[in-house]
Amino acid sequence: MALSSKFLLFCFLLFFISPSIAKTSFRPKALVLPVTKDGSTLQYLTQIKQRTPLVPVKLTLDLGGQFLWVVCEKEYVSSSYRFAPCHSAPCSLANAPYCFECFGTKPRPGCHNNTCNLLPENTINGISFNGPVSMDVASIQSTDGKNPGKVVSVPKLLFVCADSFHLTDLAKGVTGMAGLGRTKISLPSLFSSAFSFKRKFAICLSSSTKANGAVFFGDGPYVMLPGVDVSKSLTYTPLILNPVTTAALTFTDLPSSDYFIEVKSIKINGHVIPMNTSLLSIDKKGFGGTKISTVHPYTVLESSIYEVFIEAFTKGLAKVPRVKPVSPFGACFNSTHIGSTRAGAAVPQIDLVLQSSKVIWSIFGANSMVQVKDDVLCLGFVDGGVNPRTSIVIGGHQLEDNLLQFDLATSRLGFSSSLLFHRTTCSNFNFTSNA
Ligand SMILES: *[C@@H]1O[C@H](CO)[C@@H](O)[C@H](O)[C@H]1NC(C)=O
Ligand SMILES: *[C@@H]1O[C@H](CO)[C@@H](O)[C@H](O)[C@H]1NC(C)=O
Ligand SMILES: *[C@@H]1O[C@H](CO)[C@@H](O)[C@H](O)[C@H]1NC(C)=O
Ligand SMILES: *[C@@H]1O[C@H](CO)[C@@H](O)[C@H](O)[C@H]1NC(C)=O
C-alpha cells in the first residue's frame, strides 16, 4: 500500500514537473529565415548565425540540396566546432560510411583524421569534392507565424565542410549553400528533429531584389501583411521520389534529394500542348520528370517541349509584335502592346496539369514574363537541350510570390499559385521581431 502510494506520488510529481521543464526551455513551433534575391546572380540568399562566438554566415538557398555546407578552410574560428569521427552516430545519420584522412599537417576545422566525409556540391556549376561531416552551434529566429520571435539555438547542427573552390559562381559574400532537400540531414529535417515540430517547411521567394522573402521551418500559420495567412490557400500534389541520385558525385547509392512532382500535361490558354509524354515520367535511370529548383533562375524545358511551348504561347499572343529574342530567352515581345492584370502582364495562362485534371498549377504574367528592357517582355523559360537529366525544372522566377509548402512526413507539396490574387506577396512577412 505504502509502496504504491509512493509510486503514485512519484507519477504525480513526474506529471507536474515535466511540463514545467519544457516551459523553461522554450520550444519553438516554427522558425523563420529571411531570403533575399541577389540581382547579379539571381540566386536566393539566406543567412544563419553559427559558431562560438556567433557569426553571420551567408548562404545560397538550395531547395534540392542534400545538406548545409560551409567553407571551413580559412576564417573558420569557433570553440564549439566538432568533426564527426568515422562510424559515429552523425555519420550513420548522414549515410557516410567511409573513413577519411586529411593530409594537412595539423588538425583544423575541415581537416581531421578519422572522419566520415560527404560530397558538398555547388549545384549551380556541379563542382563537388569531399569534406568532413561536422557540427557546430547555430542560432535562428523562432516565429509564431506573424513575426520573428525569440532566437533559439541548435547546439550541434550538422553541416559539411567544403573548400573555397566550391564557391565559384556563387553570389558575393556567400560562404556555402543551405540544402533543404529530401534527406535526413537537410536543414528542414535537422530543425524538425531538434525542436520536435512537424516535418514541414515552406518557401516564399520575393520577386524583388530589395525586399525579403522567407523560409519557414515547421507548420503554418504563415502570415503576410496585411494579415493574410497564406498557408490557408494551398492545393496539394504528391512529391515523387526519384530513386536515382541527381548529385554530381556520391559515395553510396541514394535516391535523389530533389523534390519532384508529377506534371501530366501543359496547357496554354486552356489547350493541351502536344508533346512526348514519356519525357514527363522518371525512367529507370532517373531521367525525365519534373523537379522544383531554386538554383535555376528560370524554368528549363527539354528541347522538344520548349519548341512546342514557345510556339503555342506565341500563337496565343499573335496580336503582339515579336521582337528579337534576348538571351537566354527564345521568345520576346513588344511590351507596349501588352496590357496588365493583377497578376502581371496580360498574356496566355500557362497551366501545369498535375495528378488529375482538377489539380492545376497556374502561371500568370508576373511569373511567366521577364521585363528585359523598357519595352521588351520575354517568356521566362529556357531551352534545356536534348536528353537532359530532368525534362522540366521549375525555376525561381516561376516560384516567386507563390507559397510552396513541403510536407516531408506525408510526402506532398502544397502550392498557392500567385499570392497577388490574395492581395499580398512573399515580401510581406513582418520581419520586426516581437520577442
Ligand atoms: C593524419 O595522419 C597522417 C599520418 O597517418 C599525418 O601525416 C597527417 O598529418 C594527419 N593529419 C592531421 C590533420 O592530423
Ligand atoms: C519520347 O521520349 C522518350 C524518352 O526520351 C524516347 O525514348 C522516345 O523515343 C520518344 N518518342 C518519340 C516518339 O519521340
Ligand atoms: C514597340 O512598339 C512601339 C509602338 O508601336 C514602338 O514605338 C517601339 O519602337 C517598339 N519597340 C520595339 C523594341 O520594337
Ligand atoms: C510588424 O510587427 C511589429 C511587432 O509586432 C508591429 O509593432 C508592427 O506594427 C507590425 N507592422 C505592420 C505594418 O503591421
UniProtKB/TrEMBL annotation:
Tagged with keyword Ribosomal protein: no
Name of protein: Peptidase A1 domain-containing protein
CDD domains: xylanase_inhibitor_I_like (cd05489)
SUPFAM superfamilies: Acid proteases (SSF50630)
Pfam families, alphabetized: TAXi_C, TAXi_N
Signal peptide span: 1-22
GO CC annotations on file: extracellular region
Presence of keyword Transmembrane: no
Keywords: Secreted, Signal
The Peptidase A1 domain, residue ranges: 44-416
GO MF terms, alphabetically ordered: aspartic-type endopeptidase activity
Species of the source: Citrus clementina (Clementine)
InterPro entries: Aspartic_peptidase_A1, PEPTIDASE_A1, Peptidase_aspartic_dom_sf, TAXi_C, TAXi_N, Xylanase_inhibitor_I-like
